[in-house]
Design goal:
By secondary structure, the chain is α+β, with helices and mostly antiparallel strands. It is built from 7 helices and 10 strands. The termini are far apart. Bound molecules: zinc ion. The site of zinc ion has 8 residues, from helix 4 and helix 5.
Length: 212
């Protein structure tokens, strides 16, 4: 993914989408984790994560629904289009996923890096502000600001490590909650009158949420 250009500040604020800025991501573990291994547990093939935190080594089971949601998030960010995962198979080398549109294989190193960042996106309570051309992600704890667009993110994780970063995950979860399956789908609508219509619609929804 390439470096995402930072838009001038005025352009960003003048077109921001109203509503709740926090994507509400469910944490896998309420601590920063380094994943050692992902395996399938028992005949039900429940995903089991073995990881370390600052307190030591531990393991946790994920629900199938949460794991499928994580796989959908990974594939939607990678492909820039929404994705509906049907089933998965956890192997030594990675995870084979069957979706409504085809079969994919995610390498073990990639899915582990992704789940660590998914968890971090939740712990950092990232704030996502959508604009006409991108999404601005603020980390209130660390005081950093990053921009995500369809080319990726401008953080070191994306530029140097070429992984899906926590900012892209936070943006995807918020877009998904608002009804866009991907950044690509969201940006496609952001032109001319359609964008104004969208802003008005979202402002009405935000007001309705507040009971106005
Ligand atoms: Zn990033």
């Amino acid at each position: 993914m390439r470096h995402a250009a930072i838009a001038p500040r005025e352009e960003i604020t003048s077109l921001s989408v109203p509503g709740n800025l926090f994507p509400k991501i469910k944490a896998i573990v309420p601590k920063d984790i380094k994943i050692e291994k992902l395996e399938a547990m028992g005949s039900g093939k429940i995903p089991l994560l073995i990881y370390t935190t600052s307190k030591g080594r531990c393991s946790t089971l994920l629900s199938k629904a949460q794991f499928l949601a994580c796989l959908e998030c990974f594939l939607a960010i990678k492909q820039q289009k929404s994705c509906s995962a049907i089933s998965y198979e956890i192997r030594e080398t990675g995870v084979a996923v069957e979706t409504e549109t085809g079969k994919y294989f995610i390498a073990a190193s990639e899915i582990k890096a992704f789940l660590e960042r998914y968890n971090r996106a939740s712990l950092d309570k990232l704030e996502v502000e959508l604009t006409a051309i991108s999404a601005v992600v603020r980390n209130g704890i660390k005081g950093t600001v990053n921009e995500v667009n369809k080319l990726g993110c401008n953080c070191p994780d994306t530029i140097y490590r070429h992984t899906i970063c926590k900012h892209q995950i936070a943006v995807h979860v918020r877009l998904n909650r608002l009804g866009w399956g991907s950044m690509g789908a969201y940006l496609q609508e952001n032109q001319g009158a359609k964008w104004e219509e969208k802003l008005l619609r979202m402002a009405r929804e935000a007001k309705a949420d507040l009971g106005c």
